[in-house]
Amino acid sequence: MAKTAQMDIHQIEIFCTLVKFRSFSRAAEALYLTQPTVSGHIKNLEMDLGIKLLDRIGKRVVPTEAGEVLFRSGQKLLALRDQTRVELEGLSGVVAGILRIGASTIPGSYILPAFIGAFKKKYPTTSIHLEIGDTASITESVAKGDLHIGIVGARPFDSHLEIHPLLEDELVLAVHPKHPWAQRKSIPAVALAGEPFILREKGSGTRRIMEERLAKAGVLPTDLNSVVIAGSNDAVRQSVKAGLGVSVLSIHALRDDIKAHRLAAVRIKGIPLKRSFFIILLKGKSRTSLCRAFLDYLLKEKIK
C-alpha cells in the first residue's frame, strides 16, 4: 500500500511564507524562526510529499509546478484556519493571540511603540508583530489581508479599506546646523529650486505629501535638485547631517537631533505641511477580539 502523504499546517505556513518572500533568510525573519529551522521544515515537507517543491536559483527560491499548486491550496487552507480562529475567538471574547500590525516608518518607529507598550501592560498574554515599510507597501499588505491593522502617513484611495484618522504630524525642512537657513524660521518655497535635496523613495507617504503641497505652490518635483534618494528616514537624517543637502521630514523624526543641535528645522513659508496618520483595515474582514481591542485602544488614546 502506498504511503499517504502527511502535511502539517505549520509546515504549509512556512512554505507559503517562503514562496512570498523568495528568500530563506527573509522568511525566517518574518516567522521569528532560524534559517536552518525553515530549511529543515521545507526538507521534511518535500520528503513527506515525495516531490520537489522549490528550485534554488542563486540566493532566491522559486516554486516548482508542484510548489505552485501547494502554494495556491496552502493559501486557502491558511485563510480557512485564520477565519475559524477569528470566529472562535469572537465567541470567547478573550483578548489573546497574535496581532499583525504594519506601519509606515514615522508611526512605526516613533509613535506606535508607546501605544503597543501600554496595550501590552493591559493585555500581557497578547503577541504583537510590527512590520515597518513605506505607506504603499503597508497599504497593499492590509488590502491583501496579510496584516490586521495598518498605520500610514497618507490617506489611501482604496474603497476596500476602512480608514480612521489617528494623529496629526507636521513636516518641516531639515537642514544642517551650519546651513545658511538654519537660523531662519521659514524660507520661501521657490528657494528650494536648485538646492541639493534628499528625497525619500517612491511609495513614501512623506514624499507624496511633500510633492503634492509643493506643486500647489508652483515647485514641481522636477525643480528639485535631487542628489540622494534614501529608503528610510534615518538615511535621510544622516545624509542631511553629513551636509549632502536638505530634506522634508516629520518633526517626530527630528526631535532628538534638533535638541542636540545636530539638525535644524525650518518651515516653508505659505505651505501647510501638516498631515494625519491613518489607521487602515480591510472592510468586511472578520476581526478577532484582540484586533477589536487594539483598534478601540488606538481610537480612545488618540484624543488624550
The CATH homologous superfamily name of the largest domain equals: Periplasmic binding protein-like II
What is the mean pLDDT? 89
Along the chain, the helix and strand elements come as HHHEEHEHEHEEEEHEHEHEEH
CATH architecture name of the largest domain:
3-Layer(aba) Sandwich
Strand composition percent:
15-25%
Write down how many β-strands occur, each being a DSSP E stretch of 2 or more residues.
12
Tally of individual helices: 10
Q: What is the C-level CATH assignment of the largest domain?
A: Alpha Beta
Distance between the termini: 67 Å
> Helicity level, as a percent range?
40-55%
The biggest beta sheet is recorded as: 8 strands, mixed
Task: Summarize the structure in words.
- The protein has 304 residues and is α/β, with parallel strands linked by helices.
- It has three domains: 9-89, Arc Repressor Mutant, subunit A; 91-167 and 276-301, D-Maltodextrin-Binding Protein, domain 2, CATH 3.40.190; 169-275, D-Maltodextrin-Binding Protein, domain 2, CATH 3.40.190.
- The chain has helices at residues 9-21, 24-31, 35-49, 65-92, 105-122, 135-144, 205-216, 233-241, 251-259, 289-301, and strands at 54-57, 60-63, 97-103, 126-132, 149-152, 161-175, 186-188, 196-200, 225-230, 247-250, 264-269, 274-282.
- Strands 3, 4, 5, 6, 7, 10, 11 and 12 form an eight-stranded mixed beta sheet that branches. A two-stranded antiparallel ribbon has the order 1-2. Strands 8-9 form a two-stranded parallel ribbon.
- The radius of gyration is 23 Å and the shape is globular.
- The chain starts with 8 loop residues before the first helix and ends with a helix.
